[in-house]
Structure formats: C-alpha cells, structure tokens
Amino acid sequence: MRFTTYATFLAGAASAAPTYNIARGTNLPAEPVYRRSDADAATSYQVGKRSDADAATVYQVGKRSDADAATAYQVGKRSDADAATAYQVGKRSDADAATAYQVGKRSDADAATAYQVGKRSDADAATAYQVGKRSDADAATAYQVGKRSDADAATAYQVGKRSDADAATAYQVGKRSDADAATAYQVGKRSDADAATAYQVGKRSDADAATVYQVGKRSDADAATAYQVSKRSDADAATAYQVGKRSDADAATAYQVGKN
User: Fold this and answer.
1) 152 contacts 140 by C-beta, under 8 angstroms
2) What angle (nearest 5°) sits at the alpha carbon of residue 118, between those of residues 112 and 121?
3) Would you say which domain of life the source belongs to (predicted)?
C-alpha cells in the first residue's frame, strides 16, 4: 500500500485492513514505499530508511534486513533477529522480543518496546527510551538521558553516566550503578545490592537482606537491619549499630561505641 502523506497513511491504516500481509498470504504491493519491505504478522508500515520486524506491527525504512522468527524483511545492510518484532534504522540490529524502534546507529533488544534516538541500544523487557549515547536494559520502563544504561527490572531513570540494575525502581544521579532487588537510590560513585531497599551516599556498598543505609566507606552484612557510620562492619544476627571502627557479633542486639 502507498500513501502520499503521513496523515493519509494513518487514516488508511485506521479505516481499512492492510492491503497485504505475508502472514495471511495475501499479495505484496507492486512497488514498495521508499524502497522498503514489510512482513509483519499483523500490520506493517514503512517510513524512511528503516526496517521493522515486529510480531504485531512492523515498520521498515531504509536498507535493512530482518530475520525475525515470525516475519523477516530485508532492506539494506542490516539484520534483525528479534523473536517478535524488530525495527532497524540505519546500520543497526534489533533483537527485541516485542517491538523495537531504531533511529540512527543503535540496536534494540527490548522484550516489549524499545525506542532509540542516537547511538544507543535498548534491552529493556518492557519499554525503553534512549536519548543520546545510552543503552536501556530495564525490564519494565527505562529512561536514559546522556551516556547511561538502564538495567532495572521495573523502572529505571538515568541522568548522567550511570547504569541501573534494580529489579524494582532505580534512580541514578552521577556515575553509579543500582542492583537492588526492590528500590535503589544512588548518589555518587556507589553500588546497591540490597534485597529490599538500599540507599547509598558516597563510595559504599550495601548487602543487607532487609534495609541498609550506608554513609561513607562501609559495608553491611546484617541479616535484619544494619547501620554503618565510618569504616565499620556489622555481623549481628538481629540489629547491629556501629559507630567508629568496631564490629558487632551479638546474636540479639549489640551496640558498640569506641574501640571496646
């Protein structure tokens, strides 16, 4: 099918079924639009020099090639290996299981929907938005702004050269990385690995099974709740509080103050 304008294209797409669909075995158009090819299992649209290979909707525009497990389209010097939907734009590759959009020299590997803008790559399982030289690997929704990467399972927001790997929600500000299973907030060059909620401020690391707060170069290994302030370590089975260079090994509750 051919449309003279994008508005006409949208109107036609909404009012009538596609004039061709490889999955249904209907006829291909006599001439592709903008030297593209569509092979979507549902509906395929092409706009510009890209290539799409989505299991639901595919858009191809440009010299790409698709090798999707459902529908494969080749257009230009690209390759698609998405199990559901792959979109290529320029010298990119898509490996998104659902829907991937590429714009520029990017690659999509998002399982749901990935949007690329600039030299980025998306690997978010749900929805990934890239702006600049970033990469998304968030399982739900990832927003990148600047040279960052998202790997949060739920929602990851990056601002600056950070990376998110939080299973729930990760916010990064500066050169940090989040690997908290619930919610991790990083500020500065820190890393979170708390199973519940970890907050880092400075060059610290969290490894508390419940809730860990670090302030300074400390490490937490308390099974319940550990608070560190200065270069201490907690190993209390219940609740350990350290203040100064001490260590707690009390089975119930141990408080240390000074080198006692």
Assistant:
1) yes
2) 40
3) Eukaryota
Assigned token pair, 96: 């998104």
Residue of 54, 55, 112 lying closest to 88 (CA atoms)? 54
Residues in the chain: 260
Q: For residue 194, tell me if it sits in a domain.
A: no
Helix, coil or strand: residue 258: coil
Look at residue 116 and tell me if it is in a domain.
Answer: yes
Total domain count for the chain?
1
Report phi then psi at 12, rounded to 5.
-65, -40
Residue 159 is encoded by which pair of tokens?
């601002």
Q: What is the pTM for the complete model shown? A: 0.14
pLDDT of 136 reads 42
Going by C-beta distance under 8 Å and a sequence separation of 6 or more, which residues neighbour residue 106? 89, 90, 92, 116, 117, 118, 119, 120, 121, 122, 130
**Which residue segment(s) compose the domain that 26 sits in?**
6-189
Per run of 10 residues, the mean pLDDT along the chain (length 260 residues) is 51 46 43 36 35 38 35 36 38 39 40 40 42 40 43 42 41 43 42 43 41 42 41 40 41 38
Containing H/E element for 8?
A: helix 6-15
| Phi, psi for 48 (deg, rounded to 5) | 95, -170
Nearest alpha-carbon partner for 28 in 37, 180, 137: 37
